[in-house]
Amino acid sequence: MDKPGQLKVLVFAASLRAESLNRKLAELAGRVAEKSGAAVVVASMRDFDCPSYDGDLETAQGIPTGAQALKRCLDETDAFIVSSPEYNGSMPGGLKNAIDWGSRFRPQPFDGKHGLLLSASPSMGGGNRGLWSLRMPLEHLGARIYPDMFSLAMAHKALADGELADPTHQARFEKNIEAFLSLAEAAKHYPCMKRAWVEFPGEPPGTGVDRVDPVPA
Ligand SMILES: Cc1cc2nc3c(=O)[nH]c(=O)nc-3n(C[C@H](O)[C@H](O)[C@H](O)COP(=O)(O)O)c2cc1C
Description:
This protein has helices at residues 21-35, 45-48, 55-61, 65-75, 93-102, 128-140, 155-158, 167-189, and strands spanning 8-13, 39-44, 79-83, 114-120, 144-145, 150-152, 159-160, 163-164, 197-198, 212-213. By secondary structure, the protein is an alpha/beta fold. It is globular, with a radius of gyration of 17 Å. The two termini are 30 Å apart.
């Protein structure tokens, strides 16, 4: 059970694969976050899986359960950590689709959330390009994405016995998580910036096209 005032962090991997390297990295991030004093809520991308975004489906049936679960997880936590694969130099389509559906809620659940982006890949790039593409929609939605991202290259070799095989990498990973958590912690207790989220500047607010969240009171 989490203690009053304790930072609550959502941790998930954006892969559906049982043997996902990103799930292993997300689990490691969760353990580090717990050790740092945060309450960790672990979720699975399966919970957030949605049919392809379709405005007609939204009108007929509303927002699907996968995006509802994502919104609930975001609403119940102060910050999120996602470990995402890189597919063809970008983010996985399933994650973008869940973000697109999630962005249809009002208030819009990503707005003002602190987020840390991780990736793991067998490649030498570690999936880092995917994180730059993921940063874009999240920042567009008002999430405060931490400047430092962690991309684990050759992850099939670099992940060993629930830790990173290289102690220097492990120490750097832990510092990255701890630094992110201390910012999220400060923001939880000392909210310092209020802003109005407007999806499309210039679009007049009105029923059906209203994509504006006002400045919170
Ligand atoms: C469709 C597809 C595209 C991929 N594109 C890239 C890529 O651009 N860069 C990269 O580093 N790895 C790429 N990979 C390899 C993934 O990084 C690798 O499969 C990884 O293990 C997936 O993450 P997971 O283990 O968490 O499921 C791709 C894999 C698939 C299936």
